[in-house]
Amino acid sequence: GDGSGDDGPTVVTSAYPFQFLVERVAGDYYAVENLTRPGAEAHDLELSPRQVADVQGADLVVYVEHFQAALDEAVEQADREDDTTVDLATVVDLLEADEESHEGHDHGDEEEGHKDHDHGGVDPHFWLDPHRMELAARAIGESLAEIDPDHADDYTANAEELVTELQTLDADFTVGLQNCELRTIVTAHSAFGYLADAYDLTQIPIAGLEPSAEPSSAQLAEISDLVTSAGVTTVFTEELVDPRVAETVANATGATTAILDPIEGLSEATADEDYLSLMRNNLDAIREANRCQ
Amino acid sequence: MPVSPGTDGGAGGPALPEPVLQANGITVDLGGRSVLTSVDLTLGRGEVVAVLGANGSGKSTLVRAVIGLVPRRAGSVELFGTPLERFRDRARLGYVPQRSTGSTGVPATVREVVLSGRLARRRFLGPASRADKAAADRAIELVGLTPLRGRPVTELSGGQHQRTLIARALASEPELLVMDEPLAGVDAASGHQLARTVGDLVASGTAVLLVEHDLGPLTDVVDRAVVIDHGRVAYDGPAHGAPTEHVHHHPHDGEPARLQPLPGEGVL
Amino acid sequence: MPVSPGTDGGAGGPALPEPVLQANGITVDLGGRSVLTSVDLTLGRGEVVAVLGANGSGKSTLVRAVIGLVPRRAGSVELFGTPLERFRDRARLGYVPQRSTGSTGVPATVREVVLSGRLARRRFLGPASRADKAAADRAIELVGLTPLRGRPVTELSGGQHQRTLIARALASEPELLVMDEPLAGVDAASGHQLARTVGDLVASGTAVLLVEHDLGPLTDVVDRAVVIDHGRVAYDGPAHGAPTEHVHHHPHDGEPARLQPLPGEGVL
Amino acid sequence: MLELLDYPFMRLALAAAVITGVTAPAIGTFLVQRRLALLGDGIGHVALTGVALGLLTGTAPLLTAVVAATLGALAIELLRTYARTSGDVALAMLFYGGLAGGVMLINFAGDSAAKLNSYLFGSIVTVTSSDLITVAILGGLVLAVVLAATPQLFAVCQDEDHARVSGVPVRLYGILIAVLAAVTITVAMRTVGLLLVSALMVVPVAAAQQVSRSFRGTHLLAILLGLLAAVGGVVASFEIDTQPGPTIVLMALAFFAVLAGVRGVVALTGRWRGRPLESG
Amino acid sequence: MLELLDYPFMRLALAAAVITGVTAPAIGTFLVQRRLALLGDGIGHVALTGVALGLLTGTAPLLTAVVAATLGALAIELLRTYARTSGDVALAMLFYGGLAGGVMLINFAGDSAAKLNSYLFGSIVTVTSSDLITVAILGGLVLAVVLAATPQLFAVCQDEDHARVSGVPVRLYGILIAVLAAVTITVAMRTVGLLLVSALMVVPVAAAQQVSRSFRGTHLLAILLGLLAAVGGVVASFEIDTQPGPTIVLMALAFFAVLAGVRGVVALTGRWRGRPLESG
Ligand SMILES: Nc1ncnc2c1ncn2[C@@H]1O[C@H](COP(=O)(O)OP(=O)(O)OP(=O)(O)O)[C@@H](O)[C@H]1O
Ligand SMILES: Nc1ncnc2c1ncn2[C@@H]1O[C@H](COP(=O)(O)OP(=O)(O)OP(=O)(O)O)[C@@H](O)[C@H]1O
Ligand SMILES: [Mg+2]
Ligand SMILES: [Mg+2]
Ligand SMILES: [Zn+2]
Ligand 2: which of E263, E277, E278, E279 to mutate, judged by most atoms within 8 Å of the beta carbon? Predict the structure, then answer.
């Protein structure tokens, strides 16, 4: 971050998948500044002044509201024009956080309490659904065309090219996951709701949306029973999350573990990959785990 | 120069001047243990009463109870004619605790600690008035700590610290001065100085209630002695007659003291 | 019953028995302030030396320096012939601090605190031996706290607490007993008991170094007095000749004491 | 350096830094005096439970957080008074109780409470002007109380028995300190962040203690150091591109290190050595 | 209730609960005695910095966490000894320094450190058998040291001066306690969770204090209560479907409340009233 924003047109994104989209659609016309994803630790949800200045000075901001509190505040404070701020939540249709997967947790009556605050209850991991990514890519193309009409055609073309690739990915998933012995995936945290929704899978997340939340013992027992009864032989874990929760379930059920990447960011190990290749890795992992033809 | 009669101040008749302190039937439990049983204590204006007794007999508990630092199970206390519970005029009271209590996380100088003795006299808002500062400096002078008044209390010797606490009590210019072993750790010169100061205070009408094992330089200023034994008054009478050396229980038994109290009269 | 000569133990000649404590030229700074300047102190077997002096003269600092609780800027200390730095045989040392220091977050009973006085004598592993327990109980008995030995020290009166600390020092059966104002807050009976105990210890060869403002019941057992004034030795000689009442500085000045020290000889 | 004033958010941040830098040590000095240095963090933990409760019951979470924090502060006073617990243990119980309670409640509240942190943790560079007004009012209130009641607060923190004998309602003032601290922390953590406000309550005081010998001197120097660290930290975080909260805290810690070093050097080189001993 | 033994992870959890429940109060009693009840939490904050450092430098994060925690524990001893800071202030500085340092480093470490919490925080229900072995060895070590050196540790925590005169290397034992605590916490937070281990160091001790009058009694009762809370909490968390960490902590807090109540009732109804006063 160089702060001022005067030294060239920039787009600020809030997470790696959006950075990927903007880089592909904007080509060389815009530099993309991806804000370091703040960790989940309560105290450190904080941006540096330069990052706040970036948010203010950027030509375009692409993010999902109610996902990162610090960014929400920075955007609100920057008082940006509507057409230079893309809240992808308004572009794609976001799912409610999936509660059913934890049977035995019935929060029916408690839901009322949350209605006034739409913060909670929404699952942000929509990028794991290629089709929603198509919508996001087109929206970004349109916004870029609006703020930089001179290169509108380039943006449209780039977006369409990316959409084609995403469609191919979508098709590969559809075909690849058509004939599987199993339609259940057990994941480390409930990031894969969109993916499951799109390809008719059932996700059993061990933890909630926050990967650091401690599961209850009864919940672990319940998931172990579910895994056994569903005949699941692979429990998925994540690169950046401590695998011990997944390993506990695997140990309890005799299953093995494998990695499924929620693509919230690139790690050292995945530095050479991009969104598309990571999604294909995920596809391979699920095909193997669920014994798909 | 006692103003009220020594042995039974306040009990004699309604015409006597109102006692400074009148405590009746004080009974105190600490930690589920009965520490004081029906103790009466009266103090007139300008009177100096010494509370004597063996370790653990309940002297500190008694003085703490009469100034409201320890809850009573039974009994009543009146200060200057007002029940302790409703007594608001705290500037008339000065207290020197046994051993220091205030070790805190932020340094404070001798002068700051002594100035806190003016608390009850200060106007509520604003910095300390000139009168407050003068009174504090006078009190510091009286205990001979003037050269050390800017020193943090944590860097004092034991006796210097004790004298700081005495100065804090003097700074409030009290009409009832309660001191729990004020001489402990204080050198002879300062002890004599304290005796002179107490003499001056008494001359101006201040009453003094003090606890000591050995009155030392204070012997001459004390009018009356109250001996506490196992939480009861074992003697209440003229100081020169107090059985200081005899009311003590053999260290090894758990029984009540064998000396029979002789109220109102010395045994020596 | 002093064993070594009173005034110049250890300095007289090489044939004398090794002194229990030999300190030379002790100089101590505290908080950037010079507190002790070139103090010499010698103590022979079975000798009882009282350190006297005004508040703040440096008595506590001196005794703390000779047992290694305060770092010296200059000077040397030998305990039982071994330099303090290399002295490991800590069971031979007992220490009663001035005012209590140990207020902690977990309760501890009188017996537990006194038993901790046996620390230097205990075998490293395993529970306290029978000998340890017997010694602790004996020490508790000596200070008359036997009925209270199961009481948490936080529920003691001031004098009871002080006596617990004395018992802790006695429990180690020391050959050099260092006590900083042991009588402060202790009642007369316990004071006499302590004097008797010190007498017995001395008879068995223990040396005692004690700080007091008023020797009281201990007067008879003290062989020699050392008067400290403004961090220097102002007198070192027979106890009965010590200028206790005269070495003190006027409370208001910052100058050195005006009394000229008369080493080796009493002034009274 | 003046470049940073071009950004409105930096002007707001500097204003918030000034207020927090002055207010936090002003009340924090009394916490340090009472040996409750970690009260700030404890309150933060309890506020978490309050937010969870608010989410569960459909009450405004900030309100329940303030209520929970205040109750927590009261609980500490009660534990110190009635149970055999020292201040640090009472604080620890508050910590763990608050944390465990919060985690359990979040569990009941379900996933929707997962983002509960966002109710609690602000950042000084995203302060809005209405935030600033809240903080300024609160800061003014705290400063006014502290200024007006310093002698009483000092007495209560220095020696409770003596304060009681002097007619100071000791428990009331103890509660006043705790509640002031609780409200300050809960409001400030939402605008400028918990780490910042709770650290600024303690670290400048510890730094000031290194060289000051009086309570008054420590109090004033702590406020000055708090102010310097807050403003300096905001500026530095802009220059070196770091988060302002931790930058301010590290700057305050640097002050501590420097002053502790100064004191150590002075003591060692014996600048005072040989100075005539004051008599007493 | 025996149903829970069908799950291997519950059997492991119970074993880990027994070890943690005994070990944490065994060392924690000395922390409470030294008025460092919150050391556990402080160490946790510093360990965060250690993990961030490990990630930055490519070293094993657990190793750097243990090193950082140990250095932090040493820093507290040094601050207490050489700077004019009381234990709680020293702890607070460690807290905020650790936290601020960690946050800054994470900032530099970038994305890959975002989930750094997961390096730090375990849960008793995800203990593996190799974890259990680590915890058992560590617990055995801590218990052995505590058993062997209780008289020395007691003396050091009770009265440092007296311990020094008795020839106990006070600083060494102070450091021993701090380092034992640091290592226990760092290892245990990874296996059973920070909240659990740091709370079990304090809460059972506070509970035991309510009814015990001796150090030995407090120590033993605290260990017993820690064990009961840990095992009971694991069982209860299974029965009522809650997370085991907070359940155990709340159970320990419930013990505290009950024992404090018992004490209050006994004191009020005056069971001891009229008991003859022991002389002294
Ligand atoms: N921590 C400290 N820092 C600075 N100066 C100190 C410190 N402790 C004591 N002093 C000063 O050193 C001098 C000697 O103190 P010391 O405690 O040895 O006196 P003392 O002779 O034992 O007095 P007392 O009879 O009051 O116990 C005093 O002037 C005291 O103010
Ligand atoms: N907090 C407490 N809990 C229970 N018992 C206590 C407590 N404080 C004091 N006691 C007991 O109450 C009795 C009276 O104590 P007090 O302090 O009044 O004695 P004292 O006469 O002042 O003795 P000293 O001469 O030693 O100061 C003693 O037996 C003591 O052990
Ligand atoms: Mg007393
Ligand atoms: Mg002394
Ligand atoms: Zn996620």
Answer: E277
CB contact under 8 Å between A46 and D4, yes or no, is no
Structural domain harbouring D181: 2-194
pLDDT computed for residue A65 by the predictor: 79
pLDDT given for residue D271 in this prediction: 44
Residue E89 near chain B (CB below 8 Å): yes
DSSP letter at B261 equals P
Domain range summary for chain B, segments of one domain joined by +: 19-101+173-241
Q: Is the pLDDT higher at D155 or at A43?
A: D155
Question: Is ligand 1 within 6 A of the CB of residue D280?
Answer: yes
pLDDT, tens digit, for every residue of E188-210?
Answer: 877 777 788 889 999 999 999 98
> CA-CA distances (angstroms) from residue B82 to B3, D168, E18, E65, E70?
20, 18, 60, 64, 59
In a domain, E172, yes or no: yes
Minimum-distance CB partner of B184 among C54, C185, C189: C185
Reduce the DSSP state of residue C16 to 3 states and report it.
coil
Pocket flag, ligand 2, residue C160 (CB < 6 Å): yes
Give the closest residue to A106 by CA, choosing from D110, C87, C108. Answer: D110
CB < 8 Å to E273, chain B: 29, 32, 34
Q: How far is CA D196 from the centre of its chain?
A: 8
pLDDT band, residue A210 (cuts 50/70/90):
low
Provide the phi-psi class of C81: left if phi over 0, else alpha when psi is between -120 and 50, else beta: left
Q: Which residue has the tokens 């007794």?
A: B53
Predicted interface score ipTM higher than 0.95: no
Low-confidence stretches of chain E (pLDDT beneath 50): 111-114, 271-280
d(CA C23, CA B268): 47
**E271 inside domain:** no
Is C34 within 8 Å of D84 when comparing Cβ atoms?
A: no
In a domain, D36, yes or no: yes
CATH of the domain at D65: 1.10.3470.10
- CATH architecture, domain C19-101+173-241: 3-Layer(aba) Sandwich (3.40)
Does residue E233 belong to any structural domain of this protein?
no
Chain D touching partners, 3 or more CB pairs below 8 A: A, B, C, E
The CA radius of gyration of chain C, in Å to the nearest whole number, is 18
Q: Least CA distance to E278: which residue of chain B?
A: B254
What's the CA-to-centroid distance between B55 and ligand 2, angstroms? 8
User: Average pLDDT of C179-184?
Assistant: 91
**D277 and C35 in contact by Cβ < 8 A?**
yes
Number of residues assigned to chain A: 293
**Per-residue confidence (pLDDT) for residue E115, from 0 to 100:** 53
Q: Give the pLDDT of residue D107.
A: 65
B34-43, C246-255, D141-150, D263-272: least confident range: C246-255
Q: Which of C101, C105, C120 sits opposite E166 (nearest CB)?
A: C120
A9/A253 Cα distance (integer angstroms) = 53
Lowest mean pLDDT among A248-262, C94-108, D109-123: D109-123
Chains A and E: how many Cβ contacts under 8 Å? 118
Q: Report residues near ion ligand 4: CB below 5 Å.
A: B 157-158; C 60, 98
**DSSP letter string over A28-54?**
TSSEEEEPPPP-S-GGG----HHHHHH
H or E segment and range at residue E269 = helix E244-269
- Count of domains for chain D: 1
Structure tokens at A236: 């998925």
The span from the CA of C234 to the CA of C237, in Å, is 10
Residue-wise pLDDT for C147-181, tens only, equals 999 999 888 888 999 999 999 999 988 999 999 99
Does the CB atom of residue B60 touch ligand 2 within 6 A? yes
Cα Rg of chain B, angstroms: 18
A42 pLDDT more than 90:
no
Mean per-residue pLDDT, C236-246: 68
Euclidean distance between CA atoms B1 and C146, whole angstroms: 43
